Amino acid sequence: MNLAVLLSGSGRTLDNFHQQISEGRMAGQIRVVVANTADALGLEKARGYGYPAFHGENNEAINRILADHPVDLVLLAGFLKLYTPPEHLRRSVLNIHPSLIPAFCGDGMYGMRVHRAVKARGVKVSGCTVHFANEVYDEGPIVVQHCVPLEDEDNPEDIAARVFAAECRAYPEAVNLVATKGIDYFWP
Question: In the predicted model, what is the mean pLDDT of residues 1-18?
């Protein structure tokens, strides 16, 4: 599969994708990386890995960039805006969320906001969800979920570290499932 990666920040998930693909544990090839922030560290990392990397400030700019590259699947990797793909990629956008959807999700629930809410609620299990993205935050079909047990003494940073470790396994697993079963398998 031809993969596009959209990011907003440091590129930690891109690092994981690059390693997993290099070691033969994740299907596909990264064809382009786009950040909605011009100074995203992830762009520098992408260029270091040899991927075409660009700044696209909004959906229109991002879609113009993607049109110049072969793309079968768009991977949102810490992309902090609601992405609207071109029609031919409408069902081909995967996202990872740092909780077990439907808990702790929706507009405004991302990153440390999720982990602080998890801690405040006192839940005993958190995790991550890889799902197809649609026009509503965190409502597309779920592909993979991984659970993470929590301890009472965990702080939000501890929870974030555990969940990110699970994300590093779950996202490549989800990409592999999509590559094997096809995109249409997951949509009703």
Answer: 97
Question: Looking at the DSSP assignment, which residues form a beta bridge with residue 144?
Answer: 130
* Residue 93, CA distances (Å) to 44, 75, 151 in order: 23, 6, 33
* Residues 123 and 58 occupy one common structural domain: no
Regarding whether 182 and 107 lie in a shared domain, the answer is yes
- Is 97 known to be catalytic? yes
Q: Residue 168 belongs to a domain with what CATH number? A: 3.40.50.170
Helix (H, G, I), strand (E, B) or coil at 97: strand
Q: Which of 18, 69, 97, 146 is catalytic?
A: 97
- Rounded to 5°, the CA angle 182-61-40 comes to 90
- As beta bridge partners, residue 4 has 32, 74
Residues 110 and 34 in one domain: no
The pTM score is 0.95
